[in-house]
Design brief:
Structural class: alpha+beta
Strand content: 15-25%
Distance between the termini: 71 Å
Helix content: 25-40%
Shape: globular
Number of strands: 28
Radius of gyration: 26 Å
Oligomer: single chain
């Protein structure tokens, strides 16, 4: 087992309620159950000694590995090439449906493709972030790791007459080791099951293959809903599958990432738990999913958002929290795993998220923008939803003009962030449109007054005459890549001289060889030590902004460069380090949804440009 594999050296599998990471050496080093935000069972990615792991690797010291997805699915194949033979590890999780489940299955099929190959297998779970002890019991059918409230069973995949293929050994640390010897054409493996009452059972290879076939069929059927036929189709479809894997099916919510604690700076303290649903991320996902034709997923998040807006709130609280657990609950208490080393020494390792109580005014604009977009395609909000939105906007009319923590969740105190004001403008603008389009009752005059006041304030205080650019916060000259959304949300025309000047300023200060920093922490202290990499979301926002400004050659080159930073199976983390290494939680929903939006915007602009060229050519030919 590689002690700390690269973050990018992983593929993602999942069952739409939780997920797991599998490294290119065959190690399953991140898995939480029964939900994304549940305590870990395997987490050696953050601490090889305390985290727990499930390794499957050839016994030979010298081997090469390749990893890929079975086409158009979330079934991961890790190939091992040795002198004696070639083997494959096929990892997948059968989907669990839309009812919350305590029971989850993870299948690891192991087969010999050519020659002969022997595998060393070690199953070493560490329940509840390594804080809960367990007992190991072996049987002819497999093993049970019993931690009280949580059990992990291991069922052996084999034929009834081939017990001698594998040999099990129990250790005094509650781990299980086995050696599996395979010849060409043989397929065996194990199935993990988590839950309160799971027990091992004999599973024949044909049964495991049927599970794999059923899982592949699910993904093929789901992906067939896509209506996108433009450029980079395979890239967008992989991003769509990734977003689906990050969706908690029982509620329709989208987690920001399936991991916690992966650093934004190696060895630094910017290590956060992202296994929750941000209103912002989920709202952005609506645009990406609808633009690809995935209406059901967008509608499911709409219902989740409607539930959050309409549910009773404590007296004096904000209308919305910035993030929630996947079931909509709001207990995100942040704590530190004191004894954990962290990924490559990146300490502290945090679980929970202390930013949950922050005031981030931009979420109201993002939520209303998503509601407006959904409404435009026939996913209505209903009477109760409209009443809740009206009350939210009435609250915002009283509260938009105040300092806040902002989109980047700074921990250095509240400030007057321009992006927060921008999205408040969006909230009122979309609310007004929703009211007037259908004759809904609303205090339109009040909302128009608030919208116009925000617009004027941004023009007066969010614009720096010195920088000739819109800036991050009032009274400062720091640039902020979040403002790349200004033309996207319709606040300014992409051809407006003020916007063009802003974009040029970002070109010079925030863009490094096509990659984009979100802001400069040294110029705008955010309350944390250290620095960070370029922010992949912002790079795709930059592509979108370039395309809207008709800088199409630059947009396409920037997009194509960014595609080279994907990992071997098309996944992105949150950031890119100066070395080109992926850093931050992985894979990141924000990055993949921004990729989809940027690609579709760029594709449409390129098509329009080509159509214009053909039209001019035809006109010229006719005139002669």
């Amino acid at each position: 087992m590689n002690k700390y594999p690269l973050i990018s050296d992983h593929g993602l599998i999942g069952d739409l309620q939780t997920a797991a990471l599998v490294a290119t050496d065959g190690t399953l080093d991140w898995f939480c159950s029964p939900r994304f935000d549940s305590p870990s069972i395997f987490a050696s990615l953050l601490d090889p000694e305390r985290g727990g792991h499930f390794t499957t690797r050839p016994r030979e010291e010298a081997f090469a590995t390749k990893q890929l997805y079975f086409p158009d699915t979330a079934i991961l194949i890790t190939r091992f090439l040795t002198e004696a033979g070639v083997g494959e590890l096929i990892d997948f999780m059968p989907t669990t449906g839309t009812d919350p489940s305590q029971k989850h299955d993870l299948v690891r099929m192991i087969r010999c493709v050519r020659g002969r190959i022997s595998f060393d297998i070690e199953v070493a779970p560490r329940f509840d972030y390594g804080r809960q002890s367990h007992e190991l019991t072996l049987s002819d059918a497999g093993a049970v790791f019993d931690a009280g409230d949580t059990r992990l069973s291991l069922s052996i995949i084999r034929e009834e007459d081939d017990e001698q293929l594998g040999r099990n050994v129990s250790t005094n640390e509650g781990s299980l080791r086995a050696v599996l010897n395979l010849e060409e054409g043989q397929m065996r493996g194990v199935m993990l099951e988590t839950g309160p009452d799971v027990a091992p059972r004999l599973m024949k290879p044909a049964q495991a293959q049927q599970l794999a076939d059923d899982t592949a069929r699910f993904w093929h059927d789901w992906l067939s809903q896509s209506t996108y036929t433009g450029r980079w189709r395979a890239v967008l479809e992989r991003s769509a599958i990734t977003l689906k894997l990050l969706t908690y099916a029982p509620s329709g919510s989208l987690v920001a990432a399936p991991t916690a604690g992966l650093p934004e700076e190696l060895g630094g303290e910017r290590n956060w738990d992202y296994r929750f649903t941000w209103v912002r991320d989920g709202s952005f996902s609506v645009h990406a999913l609808l633009r690809m034709g995935f209406i059901d997923e967008a509608a499911a998040f709409s219902q989740w958002l409607r539930d959050r807006v309409t549910e009773p709130r404590p007296e004096g609280s904000y209308p919305l929290d910035i993030m929630y657990r996947v079931d909509g609950s709001a207990d995100l208490h942040e704590e530190v795993l004191e004894d954990w080393k962290g990924y490559r020494g990146s300490y502290p390792v945090r679980i929970g998220n202390g930013a949950a109580d922050q005031l981030q005014l931009d979420i109201y604009g993002e939520a209303l923008d998503a509601v407006y977009y959904l409404d435009s395609v026939g996913v209505g909000i209903g009477q109760s939803g409209w009443i809740a939105i009206s009350e939210l906007l009435d609250w915002l009319a009283e509260n938009w003009d105040q300092p806040e923590e902002g989109i980047w969740e700074t921990r250095g105190g509240r400030k007057d962030f321009t992006y927060g004001r921008l999205m408040c403008w969006v909230a009122f603008d979309r609310g007004i449109r929703l009211a007037t389009s259908y004759g809904r009752p609303a205090p339109i005059a009040r909302w128009i007054a608030a919208r116009d006041a925000i617009y004027q304030q941004i023009m007066d205080k969010g614009w720096s005459s010195e920088r000739q650019a819109f800036v991050q916060q009032y009274g400062d000259n720091v640039l902020d890549a979040a403002l790349l959304k200004m033309p996207q949300v319709g606040f300014v025309s992409p051809h407006d001289p003020m916007w063009q000047s802003t974009l040029r300023a970002m070109d010079a200060e925030l863009v490094s060889d096509s990659l984009v920093y979100r802001y400069d922490p040294s110029a705008s202290p955010d309350g944390l030590r250290g620095s960070e990499g370029t922010f992949s979301l912002c790079t795709f926002l930059y592509v979108d902004a370039l395309a809207r400004s008709n800088r199409l050659e630059e947009a396409r080159l920037t997009f194509d460069k960014m595609l080279t930073y994907a990992n071997h199976v098309g996944l992105y983390s949150e950031e890119i380090a100066a070395t080109g290494e992926q850093i931050g939680n992985f894979p990141q929903a924000f990055t993949h949804l921004a990729l989809i939006d940027a690609a579709i915007t760029l594709n449409d602009r390129l098509d329009a440009a080509q159509k214009g060229q053909r039209s001019r050519g035809q006109t010229g030919h006719t005139s002669r």
